[in-house]
């Protein structure tokens, strides 16, 4: 009787786990399915290679917005990734004392700041003094979003490295900086890359900061000091428009953005899986 009771509890527990997993997956699957249903019919070569047509004229694409998103995310990455990696290495290897405690608190607070507040901050500190919306302002706003994620993920990844690996390097006479960068960091490049890509995927889908900074336009621009279109902002502008063709393109842009973000996340998870498989094979 007791054995049957334990089996029943085990069955109920497993069922609860599967139910929770399904409840998490169902919204994601429904969103992807609905966006794919609404946007797939509008995806064509012209969408990726053409600029928007004038109001009232059907056709055109979001080439400028796609390139603008990649451009500003690249600016944000150049600013935040090196700084975030160095900050994470410092917290992992020298993370004791008041400075490290204050730095961790700052990073945790920065992680929780709403993106619209970051956009307002970039607007006040960059757009207002320069008296112009710009791709640089958008890149700086996105870099503030990327920075704490890269820093935290780097710290947690490097903390997983066993201490005896560092001690072995020091025992060979290597200076500590070489042990950190040539052994600790180099041995975890794939995991660090995963954290970086997850941070980039988070920033790529942000709309609010870019409304206050890059603002957007209907033309293709590569000037860093001028307004620049981005995919999230373009989707927003098209979605609230009264024109059916623009709304159709908004769904297509949403699909492209979801594929971009999911693609980055899947690639990052694949890197982690490959590393675990390689580690088990060596073991």
Automatic annotation (TrEMBL):
Superkingdom of the organism of origin: Bacteria
Subcellular location: Cell membrane
Gene Ontology BP term (one): phosphate ion transmembrane transport
ABC transmembrane type-1 domain location: 66-268
Gene Ontology CC: one annotated term: plasma membrane
Entries under InterPro entries matching the protein: MetI-like (IPR000515), MetI-like_sf (IPR035906), Phosphate_PstA (IPR005672), Phosphate_transprt_permease (IPR051408)
Alphabetically ordered keywords of this record: Cell membrane, Membrane, Phosphate transport, Transmembrane, Transmembrane helix, Transport
One matching Pfam family: BPD_transp_1
MF term (GO), any: phosphate transmembrane transporter activity
Keyword Transport attached: yes
Membrane topology: Multi-pass membrane protein
Transmembrane segments: 12-36, 70-91, 103-126, 132-151, 179-200, 251-272
Entry keyword Transmembrane helix: yes
Record PANTHER family: PHOSPHATE TRANSPORT SYSTEM PERMEASE PROTEIN PSTA
UniProt-listed NCBIfam families: 3a0107s02c
Family: Belongs to the binding-protein-dependent transport system permease family. CysTW subfamily.
Protein name (record): Phosphate transport system permease protein PstA
Organism: Halobacteriovorax marinus
């Amino acid at each position: 009787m007791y054995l049957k009771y334990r089996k029943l509890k085990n069955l109920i527990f497993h069922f609860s786990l599967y139910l929770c997993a399904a409840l998490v997956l169902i919204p994601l699957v429904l969103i992807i399915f609905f966006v794919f249903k609404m946007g797939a019919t509008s995806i064509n070569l012209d969408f990726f290679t053409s600029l928007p047509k004038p109001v009232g004229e059907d056709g055109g694409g979001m080439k400028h917005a796609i390139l603008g998103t990649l451009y500003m995310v690249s600016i944000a990455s150049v600013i935040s990734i090196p700084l975030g990696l160095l900050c994470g290495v410092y917290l992992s290897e020298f993370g004791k004392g008041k400075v490290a405690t204050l730095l961790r608190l700052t990073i945790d607070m920065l992680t929780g700041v709403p993106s619209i507040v970051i956009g307002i901050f970039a607007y006040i500190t960059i757009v207002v003094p320069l008296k112009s919306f710009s791709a640089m302002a958008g890149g700086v706003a996105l870099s503030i979003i990327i920075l704490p994620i890269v820093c935290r993920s780097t710290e947690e990844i490097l903390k997983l490295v066993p201490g005896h690996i560092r001690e072995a390097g020091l025992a060979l006479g290597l200076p500590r900086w070489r042990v950190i960068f040539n052994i600790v960091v180099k041995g975890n490049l794939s995991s660090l890359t995963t954290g970086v890509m997850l941070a980039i995927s988070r920033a790529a889908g942000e709309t609010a900061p870019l409304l206050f900074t890059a603002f957007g336009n209907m033309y293709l621009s590569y000037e860093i000091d001028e307004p620049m279109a981005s995919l999230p902002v373009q989707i927003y502008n098209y979605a609230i428009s009264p024109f059916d063709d623009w709304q159709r393109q908004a769904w297509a842009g949403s699909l492209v953005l979801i594929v971009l973000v999911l693609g980055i996340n899947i690639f990052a998870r694949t890197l982690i899986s490959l590393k675990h498989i390689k580690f088990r094979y060596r073991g």
